[in-house]
């Protein structure tokens, strides 16, 4: 079963540079072209648009690549959720 997340969830994922954290800004349920790549998302297998905390970089990932976090730190502010 695919992990499911909601808009506003704080998550982490593995990247080439190491572990990255961010916030989900959109749940994708249909195919989308993004940065020259086609991301195949469906309602049963969604993908998530995520904004990185440190760089404000936007990424798209599938649920299995993400881990939900309970607290995050951005620009010296910690939020517990």
What is the C-alpha radius of gyration, as a whole number of Å? 13 Å
What is the number of beta strands? 9
Cα-to-Cα separation, first versus last residue: 25 Å
Main pleated-sheet profile: 5 strands, antiparallel
Overall description:
The protein has 81 residues and is an all-beta fold. 0% of the residues lie in helices and 56% in strands. The protein is built from no helices and 9 strands. The chain has a 5-stranded antiparallel beta sheet with strand order 6-5-2-1-7, with no helix packed on it. The chain has a two-stranded antiparallel ribbon with strand order 3-4. A hairpin with a 5-residue loop joins strand 5 and strand 6 (58-62).
Features:
81 residues; mainly beta; 5-stranded antiparallel β-sheet; two-stranded antiparallel sheet; 9 strands; 0% helix; disordered C terminus
Provide a compact summary of the structure:
This protein is an all-beta fold. It is built from no helices and nine strands.
């Amino acid at each position: 079963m695919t992990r499911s997340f909601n808009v506003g969830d704080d998550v982490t994922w593995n990247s080439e540079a190491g572990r990255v954290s961010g916030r989900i800004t959109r749940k994708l349920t249909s195919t989308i072209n993004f940065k020259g790549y086609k991301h195949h998302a469906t309602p049963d297998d969604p993908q998530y648009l995520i904004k990185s905390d440190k760089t404000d970089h936007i990424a798209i990932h599938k649920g299995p690549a993400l881990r939900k976090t309970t607290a995050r730190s951005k620009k010296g502010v910690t939020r517990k959720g």
